[in-house]
DNA sequence: ATGTTTGGATAGTGCCGTTATCCAATAAGG
DNA sequence: CCTTATTGGATAACGGCACTATCCAAACAT
């Protein structure tokens, strides 16, 4: 398969494919000679993966490169590969640790993890970007005066844990190690937009159910 | 309060505040004379809201303007205001309806809504941007060969419905109508990043629990 | 009175995903 | 073959976006 065909079958313009090749998101094709390179089904699959991460997962190109780098890194165990890939995902800007709201949020999220029993990798978890994002979001909500029950956060946490169990159960159904990691990463990158869409649909549904259209 | 103080108390540069004023994200201050305008606590709150939507919710400036426009629109009932605000949120690019994967995904998502009993606003729901996002995500996953059990999607849907129930229960605790809508919108914009962070933490936790660090 | 600060208008900056333009080498068609 | 079109690679250009910097005249502070 040559560039033009790869482009046709994926729906991505040749210019963009060239760009991805340059950026290292796509491995180069098998070079036949100076002006011909041959691509295969694996390239097509990779290209679709990249597109999905960018369009559905809204990841920046640089992040896709980083995430795929971790997925491809065979020197790490599964948990660490998954962790590394997840850590590369875009996060909220660094919070100001001197801010009182941020400090209070640290406190609250710490208690949350305690309550949920997510102490497994506590040391690790508290420096995880996801932890930081959570702290920033909690702080933002409290700064706006939304002073909600910590119990609510626990309920959300339990729900998302159930989702994670579903994710990882699904990962188990895939045979190869490489596929497992890729699947897990997709679980974060593509399943999250899905959960988000479901969340919004559920809100619309529940709102209509409760209040009609007034 | 003048611009400089608003800037100091919010941590946002005066240049950026001016930009938000220009973009209509912030109502103008009370004009004292040609070179002086007076801002109040409501401006500060609004500014924090805007910042949270941009930094935590990752919304583009234009989207924030649109969402806030709907929140402020007092001519609509609650469900419609919420719906309008949710519909303004950034979505996945328009899918190619001729694509076979997209068509299959429509089918599958339709069955999902049926199973979940979210037929309440079915006509509305199927043209909702969230519905479209869901279809695109499902299609992308299947295109990559992830051919998972429809039952899984149902489980995710039930989880997110539980989350939506929590959201709206919380909204009930707020007295005023305007606050209710704002709260509901924040439920989509700020709670979603929170859920996302919890999801990732839960994945890390569950992965470590199952496989250790190998 | 005079140096500083104010808000408003406008232009510029840096990043990022993508697209367009050239180019020489090579494949394809008659 | 010989022409014509296409290929991949390098480089530059583009358009959008979130800010940021520069000016300016009016008004405040001392």
Question: What structural keywords apply?
Answer:
elongated, 214 residues, DNA-binding transcription factor activity (chains A, B), DNA-bd_dom_put_sf (chains A, B), homodimer, DNA-binding, 2 strands, 3% strand, Multidrug-efflux Transporter Regulator, Chain: A, Domain 2, MerR_fam (chains A, B), 70% helix, mainly alpha, 11 helices
Reconstruct the topology from this structure.
Two copies of one chain form a homodimer.
Chain A: H1 3-10, H2 14-23, E1 30-33, E2 36-38, H3 41-55, H4 61-72, H5 78-88, H6 100-116, H7 122-125, H8 129-143, H9 150-172, H10 177-189, H11 191-211
Antiparallel strand pairs in A: 1-2
Helix pairs in contact in A: 4-5, 4-10, 5-10, 6-8, 6-9, 9-10
The first copy, chain A, binds a DNA duplex (30 and 30 nucleotides) through helix 2.
3D structure, described in words:
Chains A, B: Residues 1-70 form the HTH merR-type domain. Chains A, B: This is Transcriptional regulator. Chains A, B: GO terms for molecular function: DNA binding; DNA-binding transcription factor activity. Two copies of one chain form a homodimer. With 214 residues, the first copy, chain A, is mainly alpha-helical. Chain A folds into two domains: 3-55, Multidrug-efflux Transporter Regulator, Chain: A, Domain 2; 92-211, no CATH class. Helices cover 70% and strands 3% of the residues of chain A. Chain A contains eleven helices and two strands; from the N terminus they run ααββααααααααα. Chain A has helices at residues 3-10, 14-23, 41-55, 61-72, 78-88, 100-116, 122-125, 129-143, 150-172, 177-189, 191-211; strands at 30-33, 36-38. The first copy, chain A, has a two-stranded antiparallel sheet with strand order 1-2. In chain A, a hairpin with a 2-residue loop joins strand 1 (30-33) and strand 2 (36-38). The longest helix of chain A is centred in the C-terminal third of the chain and has 23 residues, at 150-172. The radius of gyration of chain A is 21 Å and the shape is elongated. In chain A, 39% of the residues are buried. At the A-B interface, helix 3, helix 5, helix 8, helix 9 and helix 10 of A face helix 3, helix 5, helix 8, helix 9 and helix 10 of B. Chain A binds a DNA duplex (30 and 30 nucleotides) through helix 2.
């Amino acid at each position: 398969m040559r560039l033009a065909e790869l482009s046709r079958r994926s729906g991505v313009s040749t210019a963009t494919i060239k760009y991805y090749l340059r950026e290292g998101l796509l491995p180069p094709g098998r070079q036949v000679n100076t002006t011909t390179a041959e691509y295969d089904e694996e390239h097509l699959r990779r290209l679709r993966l990249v597109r999905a991460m960018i369009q559905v997962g809204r990841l920046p190109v640089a992040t896709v490169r980083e995430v795929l780098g971790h997925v491809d890194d065979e020197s790490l165990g599964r948990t660490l590969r998954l962790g590394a890939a997840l850590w590369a995902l875009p996060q909220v800007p660094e919070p100001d640790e001197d801010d009182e709201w941020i400090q209070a949020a640290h406190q609250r999220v710490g208690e949350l993890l305690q309550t949920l029993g997510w102490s497994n990798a506590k040391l690790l978890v508290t420096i995880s970007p996801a932890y930081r994002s959570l702290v920033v979001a909690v702080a933002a909500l409290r700064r706006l005066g939304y002073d909600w029950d910590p119990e609510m956060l626990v309920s959300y946490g339990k729900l998302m844990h159930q989702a994670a169990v579903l994710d990882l159960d699904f990962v188990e159904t895939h045979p190869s190690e490489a596929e497992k990691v890729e699947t897990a990463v997709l679980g974060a990158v593509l399943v999250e937009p899905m959960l988000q869409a479901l969340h919004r649909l559920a809100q619309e549904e529940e709102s209509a159910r409760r209040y009609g259209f007034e």
